[in-house]
Amino acid sequence: MSDSNTASESKCGGTTTESKTTDSSESSASKCGGTSAEKSADASSSKCGGSSKSKSSSSDSTSKCGGSKKKQTDEKVEATIDDFDGEPGQLVAVGLGPGRASEMTTLAKETLREADHIVGYTTYIELLPDDIVEGAEDIYSTPMCGEVSRTEEAVDRTLAGNDVAIVGSGDPNVYALAGLALEILESKGATASMVDFDVVAGVPAAQSCAARLGAPLVNDTVTISLSDHLTSMPTIESRLHSAAKEGFTIVIYNPWSRKRRSNYEKCCEILLEHRAPDTPVGIVHGAGRDDEEVEIVELQDLPELGETDLVDMTTTLLVGNEETYVWDDRMVTPRGYEQKYEY
């Protein structure tokens, strides 16, 4: 193990890349994510976002394009497959589920224990128990709006020869980064098979929240996010109209933020245009976290709840259809068995 305390500078986002086999006092320069991470080194300076923190490091990296210092619209993929030598490692997108370690799948836990590097949004990284991440050489995180930079970081570290897990809450295929990872791999001239790309499913918010409410989603369901960061609000409104006028139960992700009050208000307006005011709506705030809160309300009550702590970016709304009812404090959406069988 190198005795150097000087971390290398990464062009595309911060591994602390030091040689494991030399006694050199100077660490190697990494262009895009490095080949190894020294556990006792200081965190590197990241050009593409976030904090690369080794186990005993006392300092985080300086982010230039993963958070508040640079808008995500300025992010771009830099390195290509030609910038890397050697055999790529494995890249796995891992779903953490609702948040509690007990609700993570066994496969997710095993995958994280075997990963050389773990990459993710800071809040999700902090949800990981120590016994799951203690074997990782390096853990790299970015704050909100660092999706592109941290995903590219995960790809670059994989192309540099590391086995990397990129984590997210819920499932990697539900408003998450599995697709972005594949897009970035393609843009770099790499392939999914070249890096042994895989996805470890997690319990998505729709299902974990439904479990807390009873049985609201046992028939056809649509999920819609109110975040207009990547999808325009006119498109979101069109989808809300289409889903609300049909018999779907509807799961609403990302219902409210301080910058998006009007999206929530418009959503309530559209739902009330197509559904009865007394339609049951399940509200689950912070599922699987310390501040978890669950309520069942009527659709007509939804607009005023936007001004409360119950509805924010950690909240999921489950809107019933015309057949959904509340029984013994549980939401129930009939599947249709009563039309075919006697019971």
From TrEMBL:
SUPFAM superfamilies: Tetrapyrrole methylase (SSF53790). Residues 91-302 form the Tetrapyrrole methylase domain. Pathway: Cofactor biosynthesis; adenosylcobalamin biosynthesis. Keywords: Cobalamin biosynthesis, Methyltransferase, S-adenosyl-L-methionine, Transferase. Pfam families: TP_methylase (PF00590). Residues 1-75 are annotated as: Disordered. GO terms for molecular function: methyltransferase activity. Residues 10-66 have a biased composition (Low complexity). CDD domains: Precorrin_3B_C17_MT. It comes from the Archaea. One of its GO terms (biological process) is methylation. InterPro entries: 4pyrrol_Mease (IPR000878), 4pyrrol_Methylase_sf (IPR035996), 4pyrrole_Mease_sub1 (IPR014777), 4pyrrole_Mease_sub2 (IPR014776), Cbl_synth_CobJ/CibH_dom (IPR006363), Precorrin_MeTrfase (IPR051810). Transmembrane segments: none annotated. NCBIfam families: cobJ_cbiH (TIGR01466). This is Precorrin-3 methyltransferase. It comes from Haloferax larsenii.
